[in-house]
Amino acid sequence: MGDLDPAFIQDLENRPTVRVLEDEEVPVIDLSTSSPGDSKELVSKIKDACRKWGFFQVINHGVPSDLGKRMVKTAKEFFDQPIEEKKKVKRDEGNSMGYHDAEHTKNVRDWKDVFDFSLEDPRLIPASDDPNDPKLRTISNRWPQSPSEFREVCQEYSREVEKLGYKLLELVSLSLGLPANRLNGYFNDQTSLCRINHYPPCPNPHLALGVGRHKDFSALTVLAQDDVGGLEIRRKSDGEWIPVNPIADAFIINVWSNDTYESVEHRVVVNTEMERFSIPVLLLPSHHVIIKPLEELLNEQNPARYQGYNWGKFYASRYRGDYKKRDVENIQIHLFKK
Ligand SMILES: O=C(O)CCC(=O)C(=O)O
Ligand SMILES: [Fe+2]
C-alpha cells in the first residue's frame, strides 16, 4: 500500500494513542461443559460478559485448531499475490463478495484489504436500499483460481465457525431468559458472511487505523485473530480503548440486543513491522426479517429502544457506505433509536 494517502488519515480525536498497561481484560469463557449444572454457570458468565463488555473470548469451542491454521495459511497465500491477480475476484457495486482494497469506515479509508464470501451461496438481497423498491437480486461468491485449495478451506472453516456461532446464539438467548432456539428462525435464509481482513504493515500507524471505530452490524460476530494484536474495544464504563490480547485458537465474540447487550465500538490499530490477519464470521438474518426488540423482553423498565427496520434494506445501505467515501455517515443502528 506504500506511503500514506490522505484518504487514510483519521481525524485527530480518532487517532490511536500510546497505551498504558491495563489490569482489566475482556473475559475469557471456557465452552467445555461436562454437566447441565456447568451450563447454567456458563450462561451466567455469558450474561455478565455481554452486560459489562459486549465482548468476550471463548476457548475450548470445538473448532479444530488445525483448521484455523490452514485458513490463515491459504489467506496469506491469496493476499501475497500481485494485485492484478487479486483484482480478478474484485468486489463491485453489483456484488459485494470477493476482494476489495479500498474499504472505508465512517468515510476514512481503512489500512487493509479484505476478501468476503457468503455462507449461503448464492443468496438473495434487496436490489437497492430504497424502502419502496421490492426487487431482489442474487449474489454469488467469487473464488480465485489460486491458491487452489482456497475455496475448499474457506468453506470448511466457515461451516465450523458457523456451528460455533449458532451454539453461542443459543447461549445468548438463554442468557436473555429466552428459550435456547428463540433466535434461530431469523437466520433461516441467512445473509451471514465470512470476511478475511489483511492488514499490511503501515508506515504511519499513528495517523491511520486498520479499521476505524465502528460497531458490527451483525447479531453476533465470531472473530479469529492471529498473534499480532491490534484490536481495541471501547470500554463501556469509561470510554477507554482496551486491547483484546491475542489468545492462541480463541475466538472473540461480539453481540447486541436492544441495549441490554449493547454493541460495543471497536477499532484496529496497525504497526510498522508486521502484517496481521483477522477473520470474522458475521451472523446476519434473512433479508426479509424486520429487526426489532423482542416483545417478550419488553416491559416498563425495558421499553423498546429501537424501531423495527427491514434487515435487507439496512444491509443494502450499509454495504454502499463501505464501498466508497461518501459525504454522509453510512447507516447506523443508532438512527433507529426511539
Ligand atoms: O481485525 C479485527 O480484529 C477486527 C475487525 C473488525 O472489527 C471487523 O472486521 O468488523
Ligand atoms: Fe468489527
Automatic annotation (TrEMBL):
Gene3D superfamilies: B-lactam Antibiotic, Isopenicillin N Synthase, Chain
Molecular function GO terms recorded: dioxygenase activity; metal ion binding
Domain Fe2OG dioxygenase: 190-285
Keyword Iron: yes
Record keywords: Iron, Metal-binding, Oxidoreductase
Highest taxon in the source lineage: Eukaryota
Alphabetized Pfam families for the sequence: 2OG-FeII_Oxy (PF03171), DIOX_N (PF14226)
PROSITE patterns in alphabetical order: FE2OG_OXY
InterPro entries reported in the protein's UniProt record: DIOX_N, IPNS-like_FE2OG_OXY, IPNS-like_sf, Oxoglu/Fe-dep_dioxygenase_dom
Family to which this protein belongs: Belongs to the iron/ascorbate-dependent oxidoreductase family.
Name of the molecule in the record: Fe2OG dioxygenase domain-containing protein
UniProt organism field: Dovyalis caffra
